[in-house]
Design brief:
Largest sheet: none
Number of helices: 14
Number of strands: 0
Distance between the termini: 35 Å
Strand content: under 5%
Structural class: mainly alpha
Order of helices and strands: HHHHHHHHHHHHHH
Helix content: 55-70%
Radius of gyration: 20 Å
Length: about 260
């Protein structure tokens, strides 16, 4: 899948043998199943955090936990398996776009992944496919193709996008990029027409919209993940930008099966 995504060509016709035991039957009233269903959301948020921070060791650890999750295995071996793979692809695609990667390029990658998912009719390959999807997006975030030879304002934007789940301050950005503090806002605003703090709030809200749509995480968990110091500040900031509270936005998404506001 990764070969086809990057090259746009069919992968070599080497034989691939997948050997493994069939997963045990899991029922919704199974206590271990319920526990894994609850823990999956937490594992998802930790995985996203490791992708954003480019922490390979922790990424591999969290990825392993998710791929062993009984509830997820059950979903990937059910009639809804394609939906599960697509949901993860949508979430990871939004993460990439929120991190400054060209929308057109990312949508092209997403389309190719959808094509592979639609042609995969073997449930025994779904775990392997999801594993490859995780690795693909992690590796894209490490790819410097989109970040080489950036001007100052682009470097500021890139730093913000890559660390959007952290608490970001102007002095921290200046120190990390070795840029005089007084030069940050003038450079950034001249290109993007907003102040750095305005851009940070907008990006945090954009990321939180993806999490509200694609996960069942609590508002407090989402607020913490996107780096807001308090739930109340998260709610007020979200409403000022989106026009609805996070809870109202999530309800809208579920009722209309869409991430975007009308």
């Amino acid at each position: 899948m990764i070969y086809e995504t990057y090259t746009g060509k069919a992968a070599p016709n080497d034989d691939i043998f997948v050997v493994g035991a069939q997963p045990e039957s899991i029922y919704l009233n199974d206590n271990s199943m319920q526990q894994d269903m609850i823990s999956l959301n937490e594992s998802n948020i930790y995985l996203l955090r490791t992708i954003l921070s480019h922490n390979k060791k922790e990424f591999l650890n969290e990825k392993s936990k998710i791929l062993k999750n009984k509830f997820l295995i059950h979903e990937l071996n059910s009639e809804y398996s394609q939906n599960t793979l697509i949901e993860y692809t949508v979430l990871l695609t939004n993460i990439l776009i929120n991190n400054g990667y060209p929308r057109k390029d990312i949508y092209s990658i997403k389309t190719q992944i959808y094509r592979i998912i639609s042609h995969n009719h073997s449930q025994t390959l779904n775990i392997t496919l999801l594993d490859q999807i995780f690795c693909l997006f992690f590796n894209i975030l490490l790819d410097e193709t989109y970040t080489s030879e950036l001007n100052l304002s682009q470097k500021i934007k890139n730093h913000i996008d890559r660390n959007i789940s952290q608490s970001l301050t102007l002095p921290d950005i200046a120190n990390n990029l070795n840029i005089p503090l007084k030069e940050l806002n003038p450079q950034f605003k001249s290109k993007y027409k907003v102040t750095i703090n305005q851009y940070i709030r907008k990006q945090k809200v954009s990321l939180s919209k993806s999490l509200l749509y694609a996960t069942n995480l609590s508002l407090q968990d989402i607020a913490t993940f996107v780096g807001f110091n308090s739930l109340s500040y998260f709610i007020s900031t979200f409403k000022s930008i989106v026009g609805k509270t996070p809870a109202e936005y999530r309800k809208f998404c579920k009722e209309n099966n869409t991430k975007e506001m009308l």
